[in-house]
Amino acid sequence: MVQQQGRTGLTLEYPQHLADFENYADAQRAVDYLSDQKFPVQNIMIVGTDLKQVERVTGRLTWGKAAGYGAATGAWFGVLLGLIVGIFAEPGRWFAVVLAAMLFGLVFGVVWGLIGYAFTGGRRDFTSISQVVASRYELLVEHKHLAEGQRVLAGLTRPGTQQPAPQSPTAPPQSPTAPPGA
Predict the structure, then answer these.
(1) Can you give the pTM of this predicted structure?
(2) For residues 80 and 146, is the Cβ–Cβ distance under 8 A?
(3) How far apart are CA 165 and CA 27, in angstroms?
(4) 3-class SS at 142?
């Protein structure tokens, strides 16, 4: 069974494991090294595995902050609408239209920010940013380029050392989609 090329181009036919890395920068460095060695890097994928969501709490959310965040969001939205509507305003009134839309958006944003905060009922009284990160990164390569990729990648050294790049101690079992004799 052959994997078909997806619309996004994020698939390989018969992908095979080439190497593992603990961080994205090392995986990227390995692909850059392969590219420098004239390896056909269009046959490689960097796959983040063991995904986890990390949320960094940035502060306490209060009525004032909820109003402030709402005001800022509303003002930006008002400016955007004002710019669009201002195109059709009579000459000389463009600035007044944009300013009025910004002020209307600001007031509207404050009201909705406070309503939204009130509906939380104190269950989430903090602000945060979140990101999905991978615990490790795997290089996959088209099966027909696996041996050459292993040979070339063996010449890569880890940053700050003269040791070869990380390789899997044992190759994982071949994919059930691998062609016979690959």
Answers:
(1) 0.56
(2) no
(3) 10
(4) strand
